[in-house]
Amino acid sequence: MQPIIHIVAGGPRTYIPDLSNYHSSEVIWVGVDFGVMYLIQNNIHPSLAFGDFDSVTKDQWEQLKQITNNIKKYKPEKDETDMELAFLWAINQNPRIIRIFGATGGRMDHFMANVMILTREESIGCTIEIIDKQNIISVFSPGRYTINKIDKRSYISFIPLSKHVEGITLLGFKYPLENKHIQMGSTLCISNELIEETGTFSFTSGILMMIRSED
């Protein structure tokens, strides 16, 4: 059975939703640097911990070692970020879905790097979401997708991450589109909403980011 993997990074706590809402016996929880302490503080046992752990105290490090012996510790001087290392491990597990928490807010360079990880070639074919209290971020390759209306995060935006995204069609939306071409930097597809219980979006080329948001 394909696993469900939840990765918790060390972003500002104020952006992290209640992790207990995403907990179940089938979830593999992975802590990234200080994110592992968020898991411990929420009484969630981390299956793995990744990072250089330069953001945890000596006492927290000793606590972590008592809770799990599956710790992948790296030197601070390395080519990949802690998140990238955890993400690549997760992808190699052939998961059903990867959800990432604690990856927004705080340093903008970290946030942008976390979002761009979703565009990696290895990500194609896997459902991956970055989730915080207001947003769900996901990235798509060309195809046709169905989404359901939800009470929260009712605003739906589509942002091109490639130079061009071609053939965008939106059905069941307040502002529908048919076979529209947009380029990077376009705000045409910001703040749309579903008017049906389900809607579809499709496109023929490019990389497209979807953000579901609430005020």
From TrEMBL:
Protein origin, superkingdom: Bacteria
Example of a GO MF term: thiamine diphosphokinase activity
GO biological process, one term: thiamine diphosphate biosynthetic process
Domain annotation Thiamin pyrophosphokinase thiamin-binding: ranges: 143-209
SUPFAM superfamilies linked: Thiamin pyrophosphokinase, catalytic domain (SSF63999), Thiamin pyrophosphokinase, substrate-binding domain (SSF63862)
Keyword terms, alphabetized: ATP-binding, Kinase, Nucleotide-binding, Transferase
Record has ATP-binding as a keyword: yes
Stored Pfam families: TPK_B1_binding (PF04265), TPK_catalytic (PF04263)
The keyword Mitochondrion appears for this protein: no
InterPro entries, per database record: Thi_PPkinase, Thiamin_PyroPKinase_B1-bd, TPK, TPK_B1-bd_sf, TPK_catalytic, TPK_catalytic_sf
Entry EC no(s): 2.7.6.2
NCBIfam families, A to Z: thi_PPkinase (TIGR01378)
Protein's name according to its UniProt entry: Thiamine diphosphokinase
Source organism: Heyndrickxia oleronia
Organismal lineage: Bacteria, Bacillati, Bacillota, Bacilli, Bacillales
